[in-house]
UniProtKB/TrEMBL annotation, chains A, B:
Organism: Nocardioides luti
Pfam families linked to this entry: TetR_N (PF00440)
Domain annotation HTH tetR-type: ranges: 21-81
Name used for this protein in its record: TetR family transcriptional regulator
Lineage: Bacteria, Bacillati, Actinomycetota, Actinomycetes, Propionibacteriales
Residue ranges the UniProt entry marks as DNA-binding: 44-63
Amino acid sequence: MTEHRLLPLVDAPAPERRDAARNREALLEAAQALIDHCGLDAVTMDAVAAAAGVGKGTVFRRFDSRAGLMGALLNHNETAWQASVMSGPPPLGPGAEPWERLLAFGRSRLETTLQHADLIRHAGQAGTRSFAAYSFAAMHVRYLLGQLGVTGDLPLLATALMAPLEAPILEQQVRIEGIDVERVFHGWADLAGRIVRR
Amino acid sequence: MTEHRLLPLVDAPAPERRDAARNREALLEAAQALIDHCGLDAVTMDAVAAAAGVGKGTVFRRFDSRAGLMGALLNHNETAWQASVMSGPPPLGPGAEPWERLLAFGRSRLETTLQHADLIRHAGQAGTRSFAAYSFAAMHVRYLLGQLGVTGDLPLLATALMAPLEAPILEQQVRIEGIDVERVFHGWADLAGRIVRR
């Protein structure tokens, strides 16, 4: 402890900053546990405060509003997903053939979007993920299309591949029309094959 | 007039019903004119009542809320679009080759969705059109894909073709990323060509 005070690491956050980060993490974990066990409606600022053992004011100071909390939670999940694309095990992560990675991308995006559909609907007014989240995924799909030798307007083809995986469309297919998730995935893989001209 | 009373046509609405329909039409036209000239924010229940020369209570009785009015206006536009697909001039309407009709569908959907994007955002919470509106368009695309000899899971391929034409995606491309509308259309036509395997 004395040593730590004598030789502060440049990149180490100040103790209060580290506490704040831990605090924030604990609140997000409490909110996620509430969603997993009781559904999204159970996530009130009061309930999250109680579950994390802090005052309601702390939750408001940290996230501003219920929508702010939902947005932070979504970002938290998205960051974990991005890490698994960038450095997780194949085939979602590096090390597999581009076509295998593209299929793994589609399946994983489909599953996580359905899993977080309620959260996405509450966090953004358009029912879609944030532009930053979209941009990362679009960049990854463009990269894979390039690796697969696809020619054409790659940014637009990437958007076309990602559009059917957006929450409002998946929810309509799976929750309203009652289409099996496996069939939705196979339809998406067929679309990908046509775009790649396999 | 006497004749009309003696021989009422079975399908003719009662005079009060006809007045109500005319009234409703006038209110929707007033609302559309307000949007065209002053933007969506100008559409308040007060402004629509004033523009149509009726009391505010009439607007509320007819549409319940501002969101209800937006929904009715969107339906009104959608119905006109559906009529032009079913019985309007080619290539959007019948009489052109299926591939020309598909391209005309894409262009017209792209243009009307961008034109009504604000309305769509205010009328539906998911930022997309109603399920009924979606179903009609999906049925039409499935029909054209069938005519073009496309095999596979046609309902899912139709969804894949329509997904990039949804309002949140088009708005992001055109309004946020600044992509030219013509480029978006050519990207969509390329997608359609790949799906049809032309």
